[in-house]
């Protein structure tokens, strides 16, 4: 069993695709006897709007955080993922996912991946970003399709 995965990190954007991504990871975890952690990252409001809006954004950030934690629990808890393995962090998805994986000895990251064509392909995706910097295996679960007319 030395090749078995021991810690699988599932990254979810909290859309309906999250269920597909998690459902692909669950049997892998079961077969390997691996722990599953699940992560969602929130963009820092100060990063998006800092300086442009003359107000304290921290209470709005707290509300977004609370809402994201509830959504994440709705997705993860029915599958037996414990609250301590459910993580909401603030930052950019690809770098935060990589950081978490490195800090917590994750050996498989599972992300969703939209089929992209044309211009959308050039814009890249979270799954591409995660793959390029990850120090462990990455499984990209096909979750749908983004046309170049969609973005
Ligand atoms: P994308 O193709 O960039 O829309 O992202 C597809 C996948 O990246 C999603 O199915 C998730 O696995 C992951 N992802 C995107 N945004 C986030 C986020 N904010 N937090 C965690 N994972 C994310």
UniProtKB/TrEMBL annotation:
**Where in the numbering of this chain does the UspA domain appear?**
5-142
Coarsely, its chief localization is cytoplasm
Q: Which Pfam families does the UniProt entry name for this protein?
A: Usp (PF00582)
Among InterPro entries, the record links this protein to:
Rossmann-like_a/b/a_fold, Universal_stress_UspA, UspA
One GO cellular component term: cytoplasm
Instruction: From the Swiss-Prot or TrEMBL record, state where the protein is found.
Output: Cytoplasm
* Keywords in alphabetical order: Cytoplasm
Q: Which family does it belong to?
A: Belongs to the universal stress protein A family.
Quaternary structure note: Homodimer.
- This one is known as Universal stress protein
């Amino acid at each position: 069993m030395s090749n078995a995965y021991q810690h699988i990190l599932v990254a979810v954007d909290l859309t309906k695709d999250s269920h597909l991504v998690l459902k692909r990871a669950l049997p892998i975890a079961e077969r390997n006897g691996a722990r599953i952690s699940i992560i969602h990252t929130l963009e820092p409001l100060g990063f998006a709007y800092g300086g442009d809006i003359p107000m304290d954004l921290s209470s709005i950030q707290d509300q977004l955080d609370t809402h994201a934690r509830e959504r994440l629990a709705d997705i993860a808890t029915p599958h037996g993922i414990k609250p301590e393995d459910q993580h909401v962090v603030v930052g950019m998805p690809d770098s935060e996912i990589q950081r978490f994986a490195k800090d917590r000895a994750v050996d498989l990251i599972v992300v969703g991946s939209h089929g992209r064509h044309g211009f959308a392909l050039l814009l890249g995706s979270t799954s591409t970003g995660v793959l390029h910097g990850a120090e462990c295996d990455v499984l990209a679960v096909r979750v749908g399709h983004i046309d170049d007319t969609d973005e």
